[in-house]
Design a protein that fits this description.
The chain is α+β, with helices and mostly antiparallel strands and 250 residues long. It contains seven helices and eight strands, in the order H-E-E-H-H-E-E-H-E-E-E-E-H-H-H. It folds into three domains: 98 residues, Herpes Virus-1 (2-Layer Sandwich), CATH 3.30.40.10; 92 residues, Herpes Virus-1 (2-Layer Sandwich), CATH 3.30.40; 40 residues, no CATH class. 31% of the residues are buried.
Length: 250
């Protein structure tokens, strides 16, 4: 594998592909320095030729990751004159930034892009997603929405949301801005896949179509019991008013 870690989260390295004796994460292919996508995603492995992937694995075996010290570092910092190389999982853990758009550039912790938003969190500011405290200033792990400047979040939290929302639905969880928010998150190394939102996948709305047939009134008047109340006409308006709103949808 390009990252040498089969058990890493798909939020970081993307889905795993096994083909022609190779096992690789999709995102590791895109950010591997010098590895080019030669065709459409349906060809080879996500558009990369297996022979070239194998060659990249061999060349990466000669480079050591500056973070973990192990060989197989397939990503190089794009800053001119910088010789640091690293694995994709190590990039996330040691403050590096990998950009998943256009040229798929990567930067080490020293040369990574920084947010330039003029904002600073209060002492009691919490992450809008996990509600845990954020740092006392903008950093690699503490980020802010460039539009409203009031939504603060941890890098890991917004990354998880990005993977589930996909590029079409990913936006600030507070102000709902997308025009400024999406480009900024991509620039800062957040992986936002081009995919259908997780909640719209097969079965995502299945529960909404379940018809409620049990009487939930505090006192059911049906002689057949609560489970047969609908057939005997005893699912009353009072019972329906006690149901969650989504359960009352036609």
């Amino acid at each position: 594998m390009l990252c040498r870690r089969a058990d890493v989260s798909s939020d970081i390295c993307g889905p795993k592909h096994q083909q022609q004796g190779l096992c690789v994460h999709e995102c590791c292919l895109y950010v591997a320095s010098g590895l080019l996508q030669r065709g459409p995603k349906e060809e080879g492995i996500c558009g990369f030729w297996p022979a070239e992937i194998k060659q990249k694995i061999k060349s990466a075996a000669q480079k050591c990751c500056f973070a973990c010290g192990e060989r197989g570092a397939s990503i190089s910092c794009q800053e001119k004159g910088c010789s640091r190389s690293f694995h994709l999982p190590c990039a996330s853990e040691h403050g590096c930034v990998t950009q998943f758009f256009r040229q798929f550039r990567s930067f080490c912790w020293e040369h990574r892009p920084e947010q330039t938003v003029q904002a600073r969190p209060d002492a009691e500011t919490t992450c809008i997603i996990c509600l845990e405290p954020v740092g006392d200033k903008i950093s690699h792990n503490t980020m802010v929405c460039p539009a409203c400047k009031g939504a603060w979040f941890h890098r890991g939290c917004i990354q998880g949301q990005a993977v589930r929302a996909g590029r079409s639905c990913f936006r600030c969880p507070q102000c709902n801005n997308k025009r400024k928010f999406l480009p900024e998150m991509l620039r800062m190394g957040i992986l936002v896949p081009i995919r259908t939102p997780a909640w719209e996948e097969d079965g995502g709305y299945e529960e909404l179509y379940q018809r409620h047939s049990r009487c939930d009134a505090s006192q059911c008047l049906s002689r057949q019991g609560r489970e047969q109340a609908e057939e005997s006409g005893y699912v009353t308006s009072a019972a329906m008013s006690q149901l969650p709103v989504w359960r009352q949808m036609p």
